[in-house]
Design goal:
hydrolase, GH, TIM Barrel, three-stranded mixed sheet, hydrolase activity, Glyco_hydro_1, alpha/beta
């Protein structure tokens, strides 16, 4: 195949992402500062990989200066991470800041900026304080919405002059789906009412934080990082198309619509009522959601979601689950990332871009995560000790190309962020699958080494051109 080159607009973001709990480690963490993810790791020892997990993570807390230097070497224009809510306070109810942790954050943000990289910060990347989970049932409670707004207020006050792009949540649907729909994570309880209550309270919390940010008159924007899955029906038959539409309603539009259009889809409310799913909301809360939609979106896009009509009837005596309406479908001959079990289909980026353009007021957005988790990457190390991750280079190139193609076609796509900047702790398998541009060598004191993809990424960033 002949090679061709495409140009990146000068202002196109070429960044990488990570989160606090997946990188910083527990150094300096005080008793009572666990997050929900720490709790899950403490309760489910099987998710640790060879004894490695969030306790050591990548030790970013002690090594952020080294990592910031590597950001420059990898050519990042932007870096996205989170602040760890569970560690930012010593008292969540009264908003008493943990000065040791906040000072680390002050320095980390200053270092990123000094390196000429723009920081983008998420307020919660699954770091709900365990205390609030145990005391109030987490996002089941309106009290937690209030405490999140208090947290946002304290963070904005401290950093508004250094950070201008804020996001409330990363993938706000994930924790309650794993915990309360699929009962896959501790405490393994299936409860669709609780699932919907968490969804609503996270939508409400986002709107309230947007309202607060605007009321204070801060410069910048507030958005959210969502993970709508581009959902393709098996066929154009009505029952398969309906399966895809229902999937879209329960998992994608439940956040996209309120956050961007200011209201829940009527069909979603109808179906929840029909199945007796009880969630509490007031007219005032719906008005807050309506009046405070987000400024921009980050979208995490990894793989396509393919569905077909369900092949069996569900037992109406069991709690309602959206899966009553669909079943997964595996496309014959699909390309796979076998390590992670995810299909590779770069076209999802273009298709999502067109949907946002046509259905979501062409709101500014960027790819907030895209990437490839690979097991045993050490096998690709060359004689100089560098991991030659050509598969990652090909993956990024193909996905980035789709983003640029969408932009040409009028999409308001601001850029591309790789997951992840360094290898880090995954929710389900700690360090098993490696995602980074930068290797973390766990056997050698977590030594950092640029992979081949990092050098390539820098080349794309500096030359503003991509050759495929
Ligand atoms: C995203 C999350 O869903 O996927 C990240 O925002 C996560 O936190 C990433 O690490 C990759 O998934 P996984 O499960 O392979 O780590």
């Amino acid at each position: 195949m002949s090679k061709h080159t495409v140009t990146l607009p000068q202002d196109f973001i070429l960044g990488a992402a990570s989160s606090a709990w997946q990188t910083e480690g527990w150094s300096g963490k005080k008793d009572g500062q666990d997050s929900y993810m720490d709790l899950w790791y403490k309760n489910d020892r099987h998710v640790w990989h060879d004894g490695y997990g969030p306790a050591g993570a990548t030790d970013l807390f002690n090594r952020y200066e080294e990592d910031v230097a590597l950001m420059k070497q990898a050519g990042l224009t932007h870096y996205r991470t989170s602040i760890n809510w569970s560690r930012f306070f010593t008292d969540y109810e009264n908003g008493v800041i943990d000065e040791e942790y906040a000072t680390y954050y002050d320095r980390f943000i200053d270092a990123i900026r000094a390196a000429g990289v723009e920081p983008m910060i998420c307020l919660e990347h699954y770091e709900l304080p365990a205390y609030l989970f145990e005391t109030y049932g987490g996002w089941s409670s309106k009290k937690v919405v209030e405490l999140f707004v208090l947290y946002a207020e304290k963070v904005f006050a401290r950093y508004h002059h250094k950070v201008t792009r804020w996001f409330t949540f990363n993938e706000p649907i994930v924790v309650q789906t794993r915990v309360y729909l699929d009962a896959l994570r501790w405490p393994y309880e299936q409860n669709t009412h609780t699932w919907m209550q968490w969804n609503h309270h996270k939508n409400l919390a986002t709107a309230k934080v947007v309202q607060l940010f605007r009321a204070k008159g801060y410069q910048g924007s507030v958005g959210a990082i969502l993970n709508p899955e581009v959902t393709y029906p098996r066929s154009s038959a009505a029952h398969d198309v309906q399966a895809a539409e229902r999937y879209d309603l329960f998992y994608n539009r439940v956040f996209l619509d309120p956050m961007v259009k200011g209201e829940y889809p009527a069909e979603l409310i109808r179906l929840l009522d029909h199945h007796g799913v009880k969630w509490e909301y007031t007219a005032d809360e719906l008005a807050i959601i309506r009046e405070n939609t987000v400024d921009e979106l980050g979208i995490n896009l990894y793989y396509p979601h393919r569905v077909k009509a369900p092949s069996r009837a569900w037992n109406p005596e069991t709690p309602f689950h959206p899966a009553w309406y669909y079943e997964p479908f595996e496309l014959p001959g699909r390309r796979m990332n076998k390590s992670r079990g995810w299909e590779i289909y770069p076209r999802i980026i273009y298709d999502m871009a067109m949907r946002i353009k046509d259905e979501y007021r062409n709101i500014p957005w960027f790819i907030a995560e895209s990437g490839m988790g690979i097991e045993n990457e050490g096998q690709f190390r060359n004689s100089d000790g560098v991991i030659e991750d050509d598969y990652r280079i090909a993956f990024i190139g193909e996905h980035l190309f789709e983003a640029l193609r969408a932009r040409e076609a009028g999409a308001n796509c601001l850029g591309y962020m790789l997951w992840a900047f360094t290898d880090n702790v995954s929710p389900m398998n700690a360090f098993k699958n490696r995602y980074g541009l930068v290797e973390i060598d766990l056997q050698h004191q977590r030594a950092r080494r640029l992979k081949k993809s990092a050098t390539w990424y820098r080349g794309v960033s500096e030359s503003r051109s991509l050759t495929l």
